[in-house]
Amino acid sequence: MTDTEQAPRSSPRTPPAWRGRHTVAVAAGIGIGVLLCLLNVLVLFRAGMSFGGSALVAVLGAALLRLAGKLNWQGLFVVFSIASSGYMATAALDTGIGAILLQTGVLPSWALLVALAVIANLLGAGLGSLLAKRLVVTDRLPYPTLQPAITLMKSLSTPSTDGTNRIGRTLPIATGAGAAIAAGAAAWGHDSTPDLFGSGTHLALALSPLLFGVGFLIGRRACVWLAAGSVYSLIVWYAQDNGAATTTSYTAHLAYPWVLACGVGLILGYSISSLVRARGPLARAVRRAFRGSKTLRVAGTAGLAALAVTVVLVPATLKYAGLGALALVLLLVLTVFLNRAGGEIGLVPLAPALYFGVAVFAVTGWSTSVAVLTASTLCCAAIASVYFTYSAKVAHERPAGLPEPPSKIVRRTQIGGGIAGSVMGVGVVLVLAHAGVIGGDAFPSPVATAVRFVDTAVRGSAEYPAAVGLALAITGPIGMALTFTSVMPTMLGLGILLPPAYSLTIAAGGLAQWVVVRRHPERKSATEIVASGLIIGEGLIMVVVLIAREVL
Question: What is the 3-state secondary structure (H, E, C) of 2-40?
Fold first, then answer.
């Protein structure tokens, strides 16, 4: 049921259903958030990946609230919003810390890192509040990997109806199937099929029910452009292999300017066009924020005045002002980039965004520590904005008849979860660093190693920055122009940036859904439930396998 079909909303004032402290829900949200944050950091430094866990949060939150006798959708939303902002509170920043440690052997202070994490989450909440209405209400992005959590929250917290009974029959079967396939792939020890047309072609399919289910949810058109980007990536990768003595690794392939800068350039151009097209609503949102907060107005005015006075009195600080301006522009671009990707495909390509940010600051000549720490903090803020829009999407898709969560609840839960996760995430990284295990056999830190590789590649080659600039100069305007056509630049760019096996598996899911629905349109709802089950099944198994294999 769409928002326009739901029962009329109540008055803008805080409705009675949202009065109260939701103490149990707050405690559950913080507990789940910091626990998953801890696991995410450990798994990231062990396996180079992290798990989103939206559906897992819904299941754990419902179980805890049921035990406390407080289960309802409002309480479950509070749990979800706090936990979702908490378990990814240090995403990207923890990788940056690891990369700096591996590169320089010097660890920034705990107070500085916690401050950066908290500031990043506050910035993310502010940016997310500006973008949420545009992405969720106006553009109606599907948020495919979030849909299973939305479905679970509705079915677990509302009385049985025909719809929930149908979900109750189909969803467990699909979840079991997804879990079984994911467990089989984990036991086999492979995450993709062998190359379909011989070794070195890189044309394979991921053994992932989650990615296959994502294809069901994002639609055939998006899958077509995702596959088109993947074809380009495969061609470039094949050419790289032919020009090298050994097979090119995925990290080296991704860092190649005509892959990384090309994919990012398409999305960057599209992001700039999106910002221009949304300038009116964004400007009005900013004006409302400043009009509604005297503290914000005073702080903003004082900050600008202090900056102007400092630059005039100490001209040498102008270069730092330039770095700040560059960081602000990059933050806006990365925020739109990651939010559009998360809303359209459900996968947030954090690694390419981080690599690109590091490359940009390395080209400007800033030291490794400054480049990596600045880029990772900006990406951390952008991720925080993504999870703010996720909560806004969940609130928008609430069960019919329930009042919308007040904006202050969304803000406070996101900020509270982000602060709790910041302290936990940074603390875990520092414990690992002081133990001397980051970069060793126990915690090889593959993503941090890749960040160091990108930074070294940019600084060690006079041709690399020129190639990056040329690729951006060509693909950026193309991305801007494609915004006004039927092409989907975000999908095209993501197809270039994601591993081809991932992109092609998603495309295969979209093709399968189209084949089913083309002759039987009435089955569309059933295919979406099946897709949700596949995503939930692999998500749960992935958490179990990663904890068992990489942590315990």
Answer: CHHHCCCCCCCCCCHHHCCCCHHHHHHHHHHHHHHHHHH
CA 437 – CA 242 distance, rounded (Å):
37
319, amino acid identity: K
pLDDT digit string, tens, across residues 185-215: 878 877 777 777 667 678 888 888 878 887 8
CA diameter of the chain: 72
Q: Which uninterrupted H or E stretch holds 229?
A: helix 220-242
The single-letter DSSP state of residue 317 is G
Q: Let me know: does 54 contact 542? Beta carbons within 8 Å.
A: no
Alpha carbon distance 445, 43 (integer Å): 9
99-128 pLDDT per residue, tens: 888 877 777 888 888 999 999 999 999 888
Does residue 479 sit in helix, strand or coil?
helix
Cβ contacts of residue 413 below 8 Å, gap of 6+?
26, 29, 78, 81, 82, 85, 391
For residue range 288-332, what is the model confidence (pLDDT) as tens digits?
655 655 565 555 566 556 556 565 555 655 566 677 778 888 888
- Distance from C-alpha of 121 to C-alpha of 75, rounded to nearest angstrom: 23
Locate 525 and state its tokens.
């709802």
CA 178 to chain centre: 22
| Both tokens assigned to 269 | 């151009």
For the chain, what's the residue count?
Answer: 552
- Residue 39: Cβ within 10 Å count: 20
Q: Are the beta carbons of 77 and 406 closer than 8 angstroms?
A: no
pLDDT for 535 beyond 50: yes
Alpha helices in 345-445 (DSSP H): 350-363, 368-396, 407-435
Q: What span, in angstroms and rounded, lies between the C-alpha atoms of 392 and 413?
A: 12
What is the distance between the alpha carbons of residues 469 and 261, in angstroms, rounded to a whole number?
8
| Structure-block tokens of residue 352 | 């390419």
Token pair for residue 248?
């090119």
Which residues is 359 bridged to in the sheet?
A: none
pLDDT, tens digit (0-9, with 9 covering 90-100), for 35-89: 878 777 776 776 565 656 677 788 888 888 888 888 888 889 999 999 988 888 8
C-alpha to C-alpha distances, 287 to 26, 294, 301, nearest whole angstrom = 31, 12, 14
Single-letter amino acid, residue 127: L
Q: For 5-27, what is the mean pLDDT?
A: 57
**Which of 37-46, 306-315, 341-350, 405-414 is predicted with the least confidence, judged by mean pLDDT?**
306-315
- Which pTM does this prediction carry? 0.72
Contact status, residue 352 vs residue 451, Cβ threshold 8 Å? no
